[in-house]
């Protein structure tokens, strides 16, 4: 049985990848951080009690900032494949915690590669690095492919750029089968609540049910190439199944603005919006709404989206659009979920969640609304 080790298994991609690899017959090991509360909601359906006999899903405590934990775990498992998905992955937060971001995202990657080298696994353990379209930052070329120059625009992107090059260097220096997947934004109902897509679907569901008034966003003009995480984790695995290790761009080749995402998500609820004003004064106003709308105060003319400059970044990545030709040709990359289906799936899931909260409220329970 092949053994895989996933760092960041409690995150969006970790959950989809774990499920995918279990489906392929792997024994899946994951590194989770110690936390004062359970932090495994995305993978609880895969959990196997440690007292069960044969387990194919096993979690270990560790942290990318702690070499000793990484060396111990890798020594014990001797995995065939390591997927390094762990990261402080929020671009805006990286401006607030730049040193920690560098430690986990840049040096964390080095620590894993060093563990492979120190333990003598360079010829047996394959390594996947979660690289990112954020490397392109202030874009030099449209669309972006594997040869487009990098111009990182945040502490997160700079840390990921170190990680990218240390992967290339260890591949060349020590012959490790190591790949960078340069993935463009990918989303899902499991997306963290503070990334813009999930923030939008979650807030609109709550506005529609009447327990949130307004969605506050930053740069509405930012354009991204958004795909579905379920499709993207399959490519992570495929990159480690080739003859030679190479780096690949994974993207849909289609781009939308944040404003267009809001419109598409609202349309899923039967709401139409119009946009008025400019810059920080811009607002999203309800044009029409369906009779099924449960929010007593929502009517044509209600302002449901406002710009809040607190969500602007000191340096912004305005536009990203990927060219996944290489992955299409060499890995057979065909994304199965397009933009409209992605938005619909996320909107449905958040409406279900909001309906559950509404039920709790009706029964007199307190439901907190956390909006960041
Ligand atoms: P998430 O933020 O959902 O998950 C990040 C994971 O990393 C979580 O499991 C988190 O643990 C863990 N983690 C964070 N810091 C540490 C640390 N110091 N030690 C150990 N684990 C840590 O990210 P995604 O699943 O969306 O992304 C996966 C990877 O892909 C990330 O590296 C991200 O930077 C990269 N990426 C993501 C893209 C996207 O659009 N989603 C696009 C391109 C790259 P906890 O649950 O405890 O917080
Ligand atoms: P990104 O994703 O920075 O591309 O990084 P995010 O969803 O955070 O932002 C996308 C764009 O939307 C703009 N934006 C807002 N963003 C957030 N989070 N909140 C807001 O209120 C808001 N309003 C507008 C942002 O300014 C930005 O332009 C994600 C992460 O998953 C990274 O780990 C990954 O590497 C890249 O995608 C590819």
TrEMBL record:
Gene3D superfamilies: NAD(P)-binding Rossmann-like Domain, UDP-galactose 4-epimerase, domain 1. It is an enzyme of class 4 (lyase). It holds the Pfam family GDP_Man_Dehyd. Its cofactor is NADP(+). Residues 5-346 form the NAD(P)-binding domain. InterPro entries: GDP_Man_deHydtase, NAD(P)-bd_dom, NAD(P)-bd_dom_sf. Its EC number is 4.2.1.47. It comes from the Bacteria. GO terms for biological process: 'de novo' GDP-L-fucose biosynthetic process. Belongs to the NAD(P)-dependent epimerase/dehydratase family. GDP-mannose 4,6-dehydratase subfamily. Catalyzes the conversion of GDP-D-mannose to GDP-4-dehydro-6-deoxy-D-mannose. NCBIfam families: gmd. This is GDP-mannose 4,6-dehydratase. The gene is gmd.
């Amino acid at each position: 049985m092949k053994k895989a080790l996933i760092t960041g298994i409690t995150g969006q991609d970790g959950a989809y990848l774990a499920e995918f690899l279990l489906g392929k017959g792997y024994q899946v090991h994951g590194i989770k951080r110690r936390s004062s509360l359970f932090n495994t909601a995305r993978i609880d359906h895969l959990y196997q009690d440690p007292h069960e006999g044969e387990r194919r899903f096993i979690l270990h405590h560790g942290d990318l900032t702690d070499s000793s934990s990484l060396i111990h775990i890798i020594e014990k498992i001797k995995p065939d494949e390591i997927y390094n998905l762990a990261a402080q992955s929020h671009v805006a937060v990286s401006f607030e915690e730049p040193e920690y971001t560098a430690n986990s995202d840049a040096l964390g990657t080095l620590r894993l590669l060093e563990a492979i080298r120190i333990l003598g696994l360079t010829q047996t353990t394959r390594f996947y690095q979660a690289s990112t379209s954020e490397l392109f930052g202030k874009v030099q070329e449209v669309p972006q492919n594997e040869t487009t120059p990098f111009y990182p625009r945040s502490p997160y992107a700079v840390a990921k750029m170190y990680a990218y090059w240390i992967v290339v260097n260890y591949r060349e220096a020590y012959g490790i089968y190591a790949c960078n997947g340069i993935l463009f934004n990918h989303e899902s109902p499991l997306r963290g609540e503070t990334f813009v897509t999930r923030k939008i679907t979650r807030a609109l569901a709550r506005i529609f049910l009447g327990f949130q008034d307004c969605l506050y966003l930053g740069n509405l003009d930012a354009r991204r190439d958004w795909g579905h995480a379920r499709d993207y984790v399959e490519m992570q695995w495929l990159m480690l199944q080739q003859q030679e290790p190479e780096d690949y761009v994974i993207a849909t080749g289609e781009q939308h603005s944040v404003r267009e995402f809001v419109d598409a998500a609202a349309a899923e609820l039967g709401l139409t919006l119009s946009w008025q004003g400019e810059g920080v004064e811009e607002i999203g106003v309800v044009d029409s709404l369906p009779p099924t709308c449960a929010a007593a105060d929502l009517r044509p003319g209600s302002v449901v989206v406002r710009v809040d400059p607190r969500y602007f970044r000191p340096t912004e990545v305005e536009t990203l659009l990927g060219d996944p030709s290489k992955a299409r040709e060499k890995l057979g990359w065909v994304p199965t979920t397009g933009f409209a289906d992605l938005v619909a799936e996320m909107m449905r899931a958040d409406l279900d969640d909001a309906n559950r909260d509404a039920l709790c409220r009706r029964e007199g329970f307190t439901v907190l609304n956390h909006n960041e």
